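Students often ask why inverse folding is considered easier than folding. One informal answer: many sequences map to the same fold, so there is more than one right answer. In these notes we will look at a single instance of the problem. The structure comes first.
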């Protein structure tokens, strides 16, 4: 990536400048929030390393870095449910990415749901936290897709 190092840039250059200076964490990752470009709904939160960010910029497809598998992956490479990036943004200090996508097949979550955020935190009768399914319909069977 041809971006300048964030540590060498003045805060004003990072916050107001026009040069891409992503600020990766100690593990070389940056948080990426992915939303549906039409509805604005949050589909998922994932991580990108420098290579994933560059591949996303270059290809127009969403690429991420899997922390659990320690590898780069293109969204949809297993399921076929590719995310086409319509817009990318960085936050004010360039340590988080927001991408607006067209979600192929309608489902972004590996559980088969449209969004990874399919449980709302409520409280039970005693006041203890309770997860309540919302928008939890499965659009595909993960056991059949991820063999």
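Output (designed amino acids):
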């Amino acid at each position: 990536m041809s971006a300048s190092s964030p540590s060498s840039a003045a805060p004003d250059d990072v916050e107001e400048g026009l040069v891409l200076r992503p600020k990766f964490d100690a593990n070389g990752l940056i948080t990426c929030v992915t939303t549906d470009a039409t509805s604005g709904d949050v589909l998922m939160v994932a991580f990108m390393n420098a290579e994933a960010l560059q591949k996303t910029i270059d290809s127009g497809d969403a690429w991420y870095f899997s922390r659990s598998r320690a590898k780069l992956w293109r969204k949809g490479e297993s399921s076929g449910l590719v995310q086409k990036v319509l817009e990318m943004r960085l936050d004010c200090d360039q340590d988080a990415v927001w991408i607006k996508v067209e979600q192929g097949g309608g489902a972004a979550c590996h559980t088969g749901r449209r969004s990874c955020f399919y449980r709302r935190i409520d409280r039970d009768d005693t006041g203890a936290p309770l997860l309540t399914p919302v928008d939890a319909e499965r659009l595909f069977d993960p056991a059949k897709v991820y063999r």
